[in-house]
Amino acid sequence: MTTGERPDDPRDDPRWELVRAAARTTVPTPPGLVARVLQSVQGLRGQTTSEPIEVAFDGGRLRVSGRVVVLIARRLGTELARELDGVHVSAVALEADGLQVLITVRYGVAAREAATLLRARLRDGLTDQLGAAAPPVHVHIVDVHPN
Amino acid sequence: MSDPAELVSRAVDGDPSAFDALVRLHTPQMYRVALRITGTAAEAEDVVQEAWLAAWRALGRFRHESAVSTWLYRVVTNAAFAQVRRRKPTVSLDAALSSGDTELLTPGVLADNRADPEGQFVRAEQVDAVLRAIAGLDVSQRVPLVLREFEGLGYEEIAEVLEVSVPALRSRLHRARVALLAKLRELR
User: Fold this and answer.
1) Of A19, A27, B106, B136, which has the maximum CB count within 10 A?
2) What is the C-alpha to C-alpha distance for residues B27 and B51, in angstroms, rounded to an integer?
3) What is the mean pLDDT of each run of 10 residues along chain A (147 residues)?
4) Taking the mean position of all CA atoms in its chain, how far away is CA B144?
């Protein structure tokens, strides 16, 4: 069988059947992924009407919306979690008593220590960016996954 | 009701359940693409999360000029591009193609899907080796290759996703296929 597009088309090589076989392989969606995405979206959606936080900045004040705080925390938290092998940030939401960060951990990881470390590093990172206005950080372990 | 265009319209009008329905409908497609571009489940999940947050923020700018699925392919591939480019240098992906895989990629030994457990194991190993070879391609080649060979999108739709011309896409895809075949040959 030839593809007929080019005389030297790689798809005419017998090895290309390996690519076709890989393409036929189904990719299961990880359990709970949809729920975690919905939590993240809800965490962002809930910030459209909340009061912005104010950050002292170059002699003036910078107003940062709750939505931006969530996005900063999510990006920072994701990067910090990646440095802690086996920890993954599932969702971030800003509520009245501070940032709620939901994480999943791999089975075998010292979950409490990992959560404490992530909370401290995230709090430090947010303080670097937002100063004293950085909200308190609460980390919750919501799931354990096998690998 | 699960017409994606209608769901987007309702979400733009402020119906949160419509956007949630879009998430439920399209997350498997988004994850599949993200996994095949990034090569790791953890990164793929981050990409999917980032992509949906980006989609939610961009909802108001969606003009229905392209299909919702095309728009979401664009959002997830952009998030995957960003993820791959943010990576800190780690182990070379080429190095991950260990010599131990070579016999598995000999033409003619592709195991049948209905084979015995050993055959299925060999087939899974073959598929993994191909996916690692794809992960070793430059991301600019990997993305169109995944959309064409794995997602089965047409040239026009991929060109729209990547915002390039069809001739430019065809050329890039050909180079990607040549590069992938060269990697598969190296494994012999």
Assistant:
1) A19
2) 10
3) 69 92 90 88 71 76 84 91 88 85 89 94 92 90 78
4) 8
Cβ atoms of residues A2 and B10 within 8 Å: no
Query: Which residues lie closer than 8 Å to B49 by C-beta, 6 or more apart?
Result: A36, A37, A40, A74
B159, amino acid identity: A
Chain A residue numbers touching B180 (CB-CB < 8 A): 10, 19
* Chain B residue nearest residue A29, CA to CA: B28
The tokens 């372990």 sit on which residue? A141
Q: Which residue of B has its CA nearest to A77?
A: B46
Report the C-alpha gap between A68 and A66 in whole angstroms.
5
Instruction: Tell me if B127 and A71 make a contact (CB, 8 A cut-off).
Output: no
End-to-end alpha carbon distance in chain A: 41
pLDDT tens sequence across B4-34: 999 999 999 989 999 999 999 999 999 999 9
Q: Whose CA is closest to B172, among A12, B93, B180, B82?
A: B180
Pairing mode, strands A137-145 and A87-95: unpaired
Are β-strands A137-145 and A98-106 bridged in parallel, bridged antiparallel, or unpaired?
Answer: parallel
Q: How many CB atoms lie within 10 A of CB B149?
A: 21
Between the alpha carbon of residue B72 and those of residues A26, A68, B62, B136, B158, the distances in Å are: 20, 22, 11, 25, 12
What's B40-80 look like in SS3? CHHHHHHHHHHHHHHHHHHHHHCCCCCCHHHHHHHHHHHHH
Contact B16 A45 (CB under 8 A): yes
B127–A16: do the CB atoms touch at under 8 Å? no
Its pTM surpasses 0.90: no
In DSSP terms, A87 is beta-bridged to A105
Q: Is the separation of the CB atoms in B129 and B104 below 8 Å?
A: yes
Does the pLDDT at position B146 exceed 90?
yes
